[in-house]
Amino acid sequence: MTSDRLYFRQLLSGRDFARHDQVAAQMVNFVYLIGDLQTRECVVVDPAYAVDDILNIVEQDSMKLTGVLATHYHPDHVGGQMMGMKIQGVADLLEKTQVPIHINKHETKWVSRTTGLNENDLVQHEGGDKVKVGDLSITFVHTPGHTPGSQCFLVEQRLVAGDTLFLDGCGRTDLPGGNPGDLYASLQTLASLPRETIVCPGHQYSALPSANLGDVVSTNHVFRPSSQQQWLEWFGH
Ligand SMILES: [Fe+2]
Q1: Count of the separate structural domains present in the chain
Q2: 169-184 residue pLDDT tens
Q3: Cα of 191 to ligand 1 centre, how many Å?
Q4: What would the DSSP string read from start to end of 165-216?
Q5: In angstroms, what is the span from residue 37 Cα to ligand 1's centroid?
């Protein structure tokens, strides 16, 4: 696909949607809209906090939502109970529009538990699977560690990284299902992608909203350990 057909929007919670939501503003989550400008189809990555706002943006852009891609089960990405509050997410979105929810198969029970959705509402994927959006092809990369079925999405030299990799740092491994050894392997997988890949993280934890992988690998301390053993000594629990 020629890149002038690519529709790619990065939306910051508390700024671009869920504007008056203190939690959304504090959590600085990124939601992504990815699609084909010619066929006007798009998917949303990790819709949470204010489903109507996100759907309105899709509509204002004259796009049609054809699916949800979920990076992992945490409620700031798919909705559910967080810090005693109900966060909107994929279950609320499904009430407005019937679209498939694409997850990694290792995340199924976790997503089901967080969102209250039935496993039949979820399309389970393996790493390496591809989903077509119009003429666009999105590749799923299984990156366990932050959670068992964390996944990243590769599309047109962009890596939508969820909570696996931030521009500075990486996802924590001390929450249920986290595994530091797995995260080390996943970060190595991501580091082996082409250096010009643009890393699009799940949160704005740095001044920049995105950066190329070459810069991230050379500046992010999570790539400094030279072996898994050293990694576990520095970052393991
Ligand atoms: Fe997370």
Answers
A1: 1
A2: 999 999 999 999 999 9
A3: 20
A4: B-SSSB--S-STT--HHHHHHHHHHHHTS-TTPEEEESB--SSSS-EEHHHH
A5: 30
